[in-house]
Design brief:
Elements: E1 6-11, H1 20-28, E2 37-41, H2 44-52, E3 57-61
Antiparallel strand pairs: 1-2, 1-3
Helix pairs in contact: 1-2
């Protein structure tokens, strides 16, 4: 079984005052606090959430 590609996502801007849908995307990625970093599997669903809130996060491949 091939290993799945992973993405490292870091929240770099606050969620205060953001659209509810954008806040939901951040929560869906597993981020809760500023400067928190999580690893997520590289799927089309996660890529969609990342592209929606790309102005609030920093993303790189692991």
């Amino acid at each position: 079984m091939a290993q799945q590609k992973r993405l490292q996502v870091t929240l770099i801007r606050s969620m205060n005052g953001r659209l509810k849908k954008h806040q939901a995307c951040i929560r869906g990625l597993g981020l809760r606090r500023m400067h928190q970093t999580v690893e997520v599997i590289d799927t089309p669903e996660n890529r969609g959430m990342i592209s929606k809130v790309n102005y609030m996060i920093e993303c790189k491949e692991v």
